[in-house]
């Protein structure tokens, strides 16, 4: 079965044309799916019974099953979704004063192998489809009866390693006829796949790009993130400069502080040098210790010192508030869970 949510409106027009129908049928189907949010083709009452039956034979309106839902003491909610093919992924809902933010996964597992991340060590299985990315948002909205206002691609997987499906999903999330979330309320986070950053700059989407930087020398970064062996810091920052120039958008650099690893004054000094003059912002994350992980959190005092040094030297830096850590829903804690675990 094909998942009807995998298609853009243009693609759906082609699909219905192949069924011998007029393109406006696709507009009607889109409206039922994303405005009325029906869960069955039978509810699409302005389509002929014949067309509804044809659609049912070829397509499904894929809805995830909630395998588990955990609520943290701060109200953050973590979902474990059954993808209905034997795989599962996690998605996290966070509530901020400005609305609901959803942290979505882009792959079942991850190939990047970052040493500090819980998604590492569980083999990669497959990319999520566009419809599966959308369904994470729609399933949570249905379950909680809310409207999500921000989407961040910071769950399991490397979004730029699933480039086509992720970019298509961003277009649909943003499309007023689909999920209608402003591009500036969509963030994509990458460990630094340089060629894909250049490509993304050409897409003409106003989403926010976050770069998982985490270190200031190639030696140090390669120890934390194997991707740095392929694309060095200098190449990565060059791609970021190109992205800023093309999009005029500020980049957010993620920097997870780990005790006695990347959190001393020398690191802060090098970071200032690297980012000087760039249209950017640094997001400092107290690193979350993962099972058997070698990295532990910096002290609060150190984190504040690090932030203050950056701010005093012209780099805007904030400390990210950690949400959901008591249910393993904070940064880097998401895993692809075994259905039988
Ligand atoms: N693959 C993408 C998106 C997923 S990770 C990326 O690498 O950016 C989302 C963010 O959480 C990234 O900035 C990542 O580096 C960070 N992260 C991963 N593990 C972490 C941990 N244990 N503690 C704090 N942040 C972590």
TL;DR of this structure?
The protein has helices spanning 9-18, 24-34, 49-58, 130-144, 163-174, 194-201, 218-224, 227-230, 233-247, 265-275, 300-312, and strands spanning 2-3, 59-60, 65-71, 77-82, 88-96, 99-103, 107-108, 126-127, 148-153, 186-190, 208-212, 251-257, 280-286, 317-319. With 341 residues, the chain is of the alpha/beta class.
In words, what does this structure look like?
α6 (194-201) packs parallel to α9 (233-247) and α10 (265-275) runs parallel beside α11. Helix content is 34%, strand content 20%. The longest helix has 15 residues, at 130-144. It contains eleven helices and 14 strands. The strands form three sheets. It has a ten-stranded mixed sheet with strand order 3-4-5-6-9-10-11-12-13-14. A two-stranded parallel ribbon has the order 1-2. A two-stranded antiparallel ribbon has the order 7-8. With 341 residues, the chain is an alpha/beta fold. The protein binds S-adenosyl-L-homocysteine (SAH). S-adenosyl-L-homocysteine is lined by residues 112, 116-117, 154, 158, 189-191, 212, 254, 256, 285, 287-288, 290, 331-332.
């Amino acid at each position: 079965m094909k998942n009807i949510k995998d298609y853009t409106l243009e693609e759906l027009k082609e699909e219905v044309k192949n069924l011998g129908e007029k393109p406006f049928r696709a507009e009607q189907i889109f409206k039922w799916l994303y405005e009325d949010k029906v869960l069955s083709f039978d509810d699409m009452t302005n389509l002929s019974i014949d067309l509804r039956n044809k659609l049912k034979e070829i397509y499904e309106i894929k809805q995830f099953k909630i395998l588990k839902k955990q609520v943290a003491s701060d109200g953050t909610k973590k979902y474990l979704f059954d993808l209905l093919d034997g795989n599962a992924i996690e998605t996290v809902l966070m509530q901020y004063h400005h609305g609901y933010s959803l942290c979505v996964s882009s792959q079942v597992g991850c190939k990047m192998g970052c040493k500090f991340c819980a998604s590492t060590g569980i083999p990669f299985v497959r990319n999520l489809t566009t419809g599966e990315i959308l369904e994470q948002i729609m399933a949570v909205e249905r379950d909680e009866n809310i409207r999500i206002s921000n989407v961040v691609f910071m769950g399991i997987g490397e979004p730029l390693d699933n480039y086509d499906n992720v970019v298509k999903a961003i277009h649909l999330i943003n499309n007023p006829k689909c999920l209608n979330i402003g591009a500036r309320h969509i963030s994509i986070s990458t460990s630094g796949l340089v060629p894909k950053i250049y490509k993304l700059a050409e897409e003409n989407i106003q989403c926010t790009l976050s770069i998982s930087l985490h270190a200031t020398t190639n030696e140090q970064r390669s120890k934390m993130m194997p991707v740095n062996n392929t694309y060095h810091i200098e190449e990565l920052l060059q791609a970021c400069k190109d992205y800023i120039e093309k999009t005029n958008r500020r980049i957010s650099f993620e920097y997870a502080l780990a005790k006695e690893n990347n959190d001393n004054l020398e690191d802060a000094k090098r970071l200032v040098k690297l980012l000087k003059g760039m249209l950017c912002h640094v997001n400092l994350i107290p690193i979350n210790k993962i099972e058997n992980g070698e990295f532990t959190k910096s002290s609060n005092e150190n984190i504040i010192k690090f932030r203050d040094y950056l701010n005093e030297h012209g780099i805007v830096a904030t400390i990210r508030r950690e949400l959901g850590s008591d249910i393993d829903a904070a940064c880097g804690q998401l895993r692809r869970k075994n259905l039988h675990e």
